[in-house]
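Possible regression after last week's pipeline update?

I re-ran a chain I had predicted before the update to compare outputs. Posting the input and the new output here so someone can diff against the archived version. Not blocking, just want to make sure nothing changed silently.
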Amino acid sequence: MNACLQHPLRVAGRLLWLGGELSMAALAYAVGCTFRERGSSATARAVWLQASSRRVLRILRMETRVAGRVPSNGLLVCNHLSYLDIVVLAALTPCIFVAKREVKRWPVFGWFARLAGTVFVDRERRTKTLHAANAIDAALRSGNLVVLFPEGTSSDGRAVLPFKSSLLEPAARRTHPLSAGRISYELDDGDVIEEVCYWKDMTLVPHLINLLGKRGIRAFVRFAEVREGSADRKELARQLHAEVVRLREWPVV
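New output (post-update):
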């Protein structure tokens, strides 16, 4: 909450701005997504999320720099540092996310996630994980880009956690394009690990309010196409992990 104490007017102004943008996003969803036919609903929601995310990034004074071609379909696997990852990636291209079921209950972001058609995963129950894998496959077959964070949780970014293979079955079949991504952040007036990354026992609302007090944030996103992936999902998980680790060395202009 340091930024809130140091810049109370900035935080208050951005909170009001965020409230206004959320109201506009709700109206845009009602107009553009509510009465869509089932076949086009997922795509309409992804486009809605892209427009809404771009507005949120303006509030946060977020600058995004990209290396590599931004994928437009298939499966994208990426490291996971913060709830901001979702907003940054969604702003770059229309996509559908896979998230842990706890995200449903998050203030603001949980609402966005539900409306955007996010596939929620209960990793504690195997039958539910299989259901999520089928939902991912259905989203891929609809032609949309699906974003998966195989670490299963967010981290401080100092290392990429081992990838879980349970949701990689659709990718192992190699019937859809496969891409790897890596995201990182810079913050001039703070500590990325403690103030941008969302991990340990952090609480969402205080974390977000603190971010709203920052001058600005820079996000760096690197993408690479994976041309030859293993048909074994556990081996594929190791391969994708190595690819995401390798992307750290890619320069971003």
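Follow-up from reviewer: compared with the archived run. The mean pLDDT is 91. Marking as no regression found.
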